Amino acid sequence: MAAYILVKQLTSLKMMQNDAETPRLEKKCTITKVSFLLMLYFVQGLPFGLQEKFLPIYFRVKGYDYTRIFFFRLIHLPWMCKMLWAPFVDQIENKRKCVAITLFLLTLCNLLASYMDPDNCMRIAAAMLLINFVVSFQDVALDTLALTILSDSELGQGNSAQVIGYKLGMTVGSGGFAYMTFQWGLQSVFLLMAVMQLWALGGFILSKAFKKPSVGIFPIPLLSVAASKETWNKASKQSLQNELKQRKSNLSESQFPAEPPMCLSAVFPRNISPPKSASRNFLSSQYSYTRLFQIRGTPWLIFFVLTYKLGEAGVLSMFPLFLVDAGIQEDIVFWWNGIVGHLASILGSIVGGQLSSNRNTIFQNLVYFCIVRFALILFLTLVVLGTNEPFQDHRDSIKLMCSLMCLTFLSFVSGLITTITFTLMMMSSQKAPRNYQAFYYSALSTMEVAGKLAFIIGMGPLIDQYGEDVSFLTCFVISLAQLPILSFYPDILR
């Protein structure tokens, strides 16, 4: 009897110790997962920073004209096509293996780029296009994997790791690689990226944080409906049928046709997937751009999203190249445009997020900072119009410093306005039917990138044909035109 009591007490004591250890182990596991996500998003942001801020200036120094440099922006096309291959990623049940394969392919792509002629713009562009294709494919898989392994309480930390990691990667890729290029050449940059991708691959494979998904229910993102077939049972099938019937009855009196649910968090636990028929119907029913115009306030929002960054994006793309043409040393331009500009944009995004928390003042903030942006673009345009020869004397040094500070502040305002605009897009998407919200928001995001990309590419021939003065005046007029457009701001978004 005494032995039995002793064994029972020891068992209870061990259970208490295990209960005390559980929070500490869970915290350690969370730190591990978030740290590896930070690493993966960091190496994912390196190529984008390299191609966005560094390579245009690099090729301008090499003597390429504006048409070819801005045509180089077409390498961003894979990011606009993410929605096209998202269903293919969803069909891959092992997202961990998918991410590992993309890391391996990125290593090979960077190794291939390291053997190319650094002065050949077209070959470097082809290599970066291939890298962007793999990275955009990886982005879909990594986002889905992150939602799978993170519990509900860890999603906020995971999102912070995504934003911080990607922004840090962009900063290193734009500014840090510039100084490395001056010392060892562009080939060494691609070789270093290959080593970093291989390092991330090794850590990803050896880590246990991505092997088992967290238990719980989460809202599945756009087109993310893939999981294991073996865990599908009769109860979940019946739950799906009941949910679809309920959705159909709720939407029968709406102006939109009935469709399967977009957010399936109440139907599909993390370890359950829908039957094939439901998946096919789900995928085929969401790609309807015409439905965007049936939602109040959307036509104005689409026009605004397509045009609100045109003047700003043109100036931010052309002014660093103008400084190089004016005789400013490349390392100074790389420092201000790459590192300082990125940090200012990040700070602007943070401030914009805080200002967007109050929906009642979003419109007033948007109008105010669009006016500030117009004033900054006006100043930079006057600098270009008043510069007929390279910067030389003390007076030019003062003008240069004012221009660099203005360019930095424009990057800050750019990040702030972008955050406010994306908040408006989220607010508008909430007014769409629940099963259409994710596609609605993704479609607007794609339009924002498409409008900016098309305008910047078109600016190249304009500069070569008519000069920098006409190009900057065009950006100035477009930024001025945004102010009357805001006067038609729909009341439903207020």
Could you name the ranges where pLDDT drops below 50 across 5 or more consecutive residues? 213-241, 247-286
The CATH C-level class name of the largest domain: Mainly Alpha
CATH superfamily of the largest domain: MFS general substrate transporter like domains
Roughly what is the average pLDDT, rounded to an integer? 76
What characterizes the major β-sheet?
Answer: none
Q: Please, how many domains?
A: 2
Order of helices and strands: HHHHHHHHHHHHHHHHH
Tell me the span between the first and last alpha carbons. Answer: 75 Å
**CATH topology tier name of the largest domain:** Growth Hormone, Chain: A
Given the C-alpha coordinates, what overall shape results? globular
The number of strands is: 0
Task: Please count the helical segments.
Answer: 17
Relative strand content: under 5%
Overall radius of gyration: 26 Å
Secondary structural class: mainly alpha
What's the arrangement of secondary structure elements?
Elements: H1 2-61, H2 66-71, H3 77-80, H4 82-91, H5 95-114, H6 121-149, H7 155-184, H8 186-206, H9 234-251, H10 276-284, H11 298-307, H12 310-325, H13 330-355, H14 362-385, H15 394-429, H16 437-466, H17 468-486
Helix pairs in contact: 1-6, 1-7, 1-8, 1-12, 1-13, 4-6, 5-6, 5-8, 7-8, 7-13, 11-16, 12-14, 12-16, 12-17, 13-15, 14-15, 14-17, 15-16, 16-17
Organism: Strigamia maritima
Pfam family, one: MFS_1
GO molecular function, one term: transmembrane transporter activity
